[in-house]
Write a sequence for this structure.
């Protein structure tokens, strides 16, 4: 049942239409879609199932990346960061020339496409993350200020 929270602003459901509030304001959407059994078994949905599988891989890869760099990000991402990262991961997956459609993955894609991704859409990464750098010598050992490493 819908609740009115203003003259024309609704929250809730009337029939197949759901009214809700998001960061974009008050929105409405209609229930729709295909039955689960038909989606899983109908040959007409084979390509769609492949797209869904690849989108799932992009979501999992995005989560893995965020989990790995969470200590560095430390609340610097904006509210739309995940959706932008999943979109970037989808570009990486679509660049996979090794696997067939529906089986493409991040590791066989072009990870270089993630270069320059800003985790905060409102500011560049260099303005939001402050990480101490380390200088490496040719030997591969870090340079110590107090003594020389040979």
């Amino acid at each position: 049942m819908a609740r009115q929270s203003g003259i024309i602003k609704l929250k809730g459901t009337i029939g197949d239409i759901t009214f809700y509030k998001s960061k974009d304001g008050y929105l409405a959407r209609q229930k729709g879609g295909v039955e689960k059994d038909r989606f899983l078994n109908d040959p007409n949905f084979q390509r769609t199932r492949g797209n869904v599988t690849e989108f799932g891989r992009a979501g999992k890869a995005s989560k893995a990346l965020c989990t790995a760099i969470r200590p560095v990000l430390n609340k610097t991402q904006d509210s739309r960061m995940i959706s932008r990262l999943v979109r970037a991961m989808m570009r990486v997956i679509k660049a996979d020339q090794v696997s067939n459609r529906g089986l493409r993955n991040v590791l066989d894609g072009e990870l270089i496409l993630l270069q320059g991704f800003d985790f905060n859409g409102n500011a560049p990464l260099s303005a939001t993350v402050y990480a101490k750098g380390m200088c490496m010598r040719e030997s591969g050992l870090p340079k110590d200020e107090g003594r020389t490493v040979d």
